[in-house]
């Protein structure tokens, strides 16, 4: 497993201005960002054994992160 953080800047490097604009204009989008960061941080802590979790829990977290990333990408596309 990779222990490289999947920050939004890494995932959407060319869309950070758009992410910031949506964050301040949409509470729904801002919540997606908070949720993404929380799940991403938990995955990173698990991968680095700071806060180990079961393999099943880590898999579930990865699925959650992917679903949140998809929702963020969709919101960015809809507001392009």
UniProtKB/TrEMBL annotation:
Gene3D superfamilies: 6.10.280.50. This is GTP-binding protein.
